[in-house]
Amino acid sequence: MTVAPLLGLVRAVQANYYRVRLGQPYYGIDELLCVRRSRLKKIGQHVYVGDWVEVSHPDWQGQRGAISNVLPRRNQLQRPAIANVEQVLLLFALADPEPDALQMTRFLITAEVLGVEILVGLTKADLVSDALETLWRDRLRSWGYNSYGFSITAGQQWQALLRSLSNKVTVVCGPSGVGKSSLIRHLHPDGKIRVGAISEHWHKGQHTTRHVELFPLPTGGWIADTPGFNQPELLAITPQQLAQAFPEIRQRSATQSCQFDNCRHRQEPNCAVRGNWERYPLYLSCLAELEAIKDYGVDTAPHSKTKTDRHGAQHQEPLLDPKKYRRRSRRQQHQQLTPLDTEEEVMDV
């Protein structure tokens, strides 16, 4: 008789420990504090928040266990490190700190590449005029995004997000100081979530959240609080993915095709995308950054291989580092040069 594996969702990662919420409670226990099995460490298999994992050797009395396997991921964010995201909620402040079009675009590109639904929230609406809020919402709409404008500290406008967050795994991203932790504290009042103040000198947010953590929502689903950062990296994005990450380019490409299939929408003749739209200079700036990264060289070698288990199911397994785990062949050992005799040994002879 085959025993079904014990499955759970990684809710938080701190140091070398993982808080795993079980798919169903056992003996009245719904969460275990787990470590990663040494086999996973050896093959370089990382465990991220949002991963569905198999837990072995549960200690129900001590509420501990060991993660023995990571199930295939739907998607993965490198920064913040989180897997199996169903939608992204991007938060930007209308004041303290003021919104920046390039910074917002980089966050939007990172979310677009995941291929999930994107929600945009504009916080601190109580600190600006209605005209400025409307200006930014119209500007985002011209980029291809609907947005919510609200204040977390005044009024209940933030509750309009609840319907969109229900029964989904949502990761909240954005610069420091825009109110990510404050919003999640409203959505999950029972959680012990730290919030910080804005730096009076720099007028920027101070890092309050130190690690990624999933919090359950009362309406169902999960929401992830993440550390704030001001410049998302574009290392893992290709120029083709960059173009598809702009709704303006997708809209223009749907009605008219460029002359060349690999058109980068720069100086190519008969380009259907190049033109007078607001974020076109930002697209060129990001494209130049990606080309510079390519010129300097990025490791594109595969880091995983497909394995088939005894039940016929396929899964990805990280490749071993040959420098760490592969023994040198006998030929290489015999070819190794022996060190020359030292001067003292020669004099002794």
TrEMBL record:
GO terms for biological process: ribosomal small subunit biogenesis. Residues 324-333 have a biased composition (Basic residues). GTP binds at residues 123-126, 174-182. InterPro entries: G_CP_dom, NA-bd_OB-fold, P-loop_NTPase, Ribosome_biogen_GTPase_RsgA, RsgA_GTPase_dom. Its EC number is 3.6.1.-. Its cofactor is Zn(2+). Residues 301-349 are annotated as: Disordered. The keyword Hydrolase applies. Residues 83-230 form the EngC GTPase domain. Residues 306-323 have a biased composition (Basic and acidic residues). GO terms for cellular component: cytoplasm. It is found in: Cytoplasm. PROSITE patterns: ENGC_GTPASE (PS50936), G_CP (PS51721). Belongs to the TRAFAC class YlqF/YawG GTPase family. RsgA subfamily. One of several proteins that assist in the late maturation steps of the functional core of the 30S ribosomal subunit. Helps release RbfA from mature subunits. May play a role in the assembly of ribosomal proteins into the subunit. Circularly permuted GTPase that catalyzes slow GTP hydrolysis, GTPase activity is stimulated by the 30S ribosomal subunit. Monomer. Associates with 30S ribosomal subunit, binds 16S rRNA. This is Small ribosomal subunit biogenesis GTPase RsgA. It comes from Parathermosynechococcus lividus PCC 6715. The gene is rsgA.
